[in-house]
Write a structure and sequence with these properties.
single chain, 283 residues, alpha+beta, Fructose-1,6-Bisphosphatase, Chain A, domain 1, D-Maltodextrin-Binding Protein, domain 2, seven-stranded mixed β-sheet, five-stranded mixed β-sheet, 34% helix, globular
């Protein structure tokens, strides 16, 4: 069951591609870097895309709430009585854009009844759009080509010599040595965007993605975890508890998740979750 009409889907898909292609163009020109907090940056490109996408979604879905990363005032809508909320991350992986690297994405997620309902993740560098949701399936489009069903691809079963895991740069600096000691077969993979990391799991490039520093916000997670759930992946924390998206599991003002995050294929979660938990607790 699709959560949007065919006409709305066409609008959304084109809007994300337009925004991502614009980001690539603007990244080749001088842009402003804005420090929002400690080790937390935005750019004038983020702000421009944020406003552009916000206006489009408000026009297409006037009865829904619209929450965007770069508009703090929009977060109050999470605590109001909206049946549906659109979570917009105009640039997921801003640090990579600043470093003139390619691992950033444009993301939009649909939240409904306390859970991700649908998600869109656009990779500008590859000109690829991924979208879908738990009751909808997974879809991919390349450039202007028609969308086609995306079949999730499980990675090879972990062996004593091979266990590809995705981790963020900061988490690797804090916990990489402990994880490597506890799980010697670990092969670490790195990318900037949260959404692109999850897609690496869905497409079988790695078996599991772990996020540990509890700084991720609702607009970072809604879109990619809708895709992860559609792919049949497990989304839980280090204790094995399912990830929660309700008000009592998020910081009230910032909408920051209070859980660690594991996204992975069931065999990888079953094999590594407890070992990862022990490794993290040893630091």
């Amino acid at each position: 069951m699709t959560p949007v009409s065919l006409a709305q889907l066409t609008h959304i898909n084109q809007a994300l591609r337009d925004a991502g292609q614009l980001a690539q163009t603007l990244a080749t020109q001088p842009f402003e870097i804005i420090e929002k907090g400690k080790n937390d940056f935005a750019t004038s490109i983020d702000c421009q895309l944020d406003e552009q996408l916000s206006q489009q979604f408000q026009a297409w879905f006037p009865a829904d709430g619209i929450i965007t990363e770069e508009n703090p005032d929009s977060r109050i809508q999470f605590h109001q009585n909206y049946e549906r909320l659109w979570l917009i991350d105009p640039l997921d992986g801003t640090d990579d854009l600043i470093r003139i690297q390619k691992n950033y994405a444009v993301m939009v997620g649909l939240w409904q009844e306390g859970a991700p309902r649908a998600g869109w993740v656009y990779d500008p560098a590859a000109d690829q759009l991924f979208y879908g949701g738990p009751s909808w399936g997974l879809w991919q489009s390349n450039g202007n080509d028609p969308a086609f069903p995306l079949k999730p691809s499980p990675p090879p079963h972990p062996t004593p010599d091979q266990a590809p895991l995705m981790i963020g740069y900061k988490d690797f600096q804090a916990y990489g040595a402990a994880i490597q000691h506890a799980i010697p077969e670990t092969q670490f993979h790195f990318l900037g965007s949260f959404g692109l990391k999850v897609l690496q799991v869905i497409t079988g490039q790695v078996g599991l993605y772990l996020y540990l520093n509890k700084r991720v916000k609702l607009w970072d997670t809604t879109a990619p975890l809708a895709l992860a759930q559609a792919a049949g992946l497990i989304c839980c924390d280090l204790t094995g508890e399912p990830l929660r998206f309700s008000a009592d599991s998020l910081e009230h003002e910032t909408l920051t998740h209070d859980q660690t995050i594991l996204v992975g294929w069931p065999n990888y979660i079953n094999c590594f979750r407890e070992r990862l938990q022990l490794a993290i607790e040893s630091v």
